[in-house]
Design a protein that fits this description.
The chain is mainly beta and 162 residues long. The chain has two helices and 15 strands.
Length: 162
């Protein structure tokens, strides 16, 4: 069964994207966050300006024009259609690595109070810098990482006070 995605660009333009659409993109990485894309014989310069991996939200620059892109998968669409708006992530007490990578920067300290969507740390993975944000309001109880650490998927990174 193939996956489908919905992309909203600047909350004004909506696109349906299939897994095969993604795999057929003619893109070449030019830097950690930059890509050269060829589509219908037209070249495009794309740069990922910022990313919120947990929120599936990205700020990109396409030929020097900035766009906000929100991506939803089939599960996100189903949850929205069912009328659920509260995110389960608000109940999260620990942050685990969503993928293997390298910790570049930690932006919080133990005992610090954070709000939902405050930046916690930057994880470099798959040639991209991902700014990981807090899934909820809370107080940082424990930080299991330091800059320069290589982390594995599902490794404990940060714990919140309950």
């Amino acid at each position: 069964m193939s996956k489908h995605f919905k992309a909203a660009v600047n909350m004004a333009f909506h696109f349906d994207i299939s897994e095969s659409d993604v795999s057929n993109i003619d893109a070449v990485a030019t830097s950690k966050t930059g890509y050269h894309i060829l589509h219908q014989n037209k070249p495009y310069g794309v740069k990922i300006v910022s990313s919120n991996f947990n929120g599936k939200s990205y700020q990109i620059s396409l030929n020097n024009n900035n766009y906000h892109v929100q991506i939803s998968d089939d599960l996100d669409v189903m949850i929205k259609e069912m009328g659920f708006t509260a995110r389960a992530s608000k109940l999260v007490d620990v942050i685990k690595a969503p993928m293997p990578g390298l910790i570049l920067e930690i932006q919080v300290k133990v005992g610090q109070t954070v709000k939902e969507n405050d930046p916690l740390f930057i994880l470099e993975a798959m040639k991209m810098e991902n700014s990981m944000v807090s899934p909820r309001d809370g107080v940082i109880k424990f930080i299991a990482i330091k800059p320069g650490d290589a982390v594995e998927k599902n490794q404990l990174l940060i714990e919140f006070e309950s």
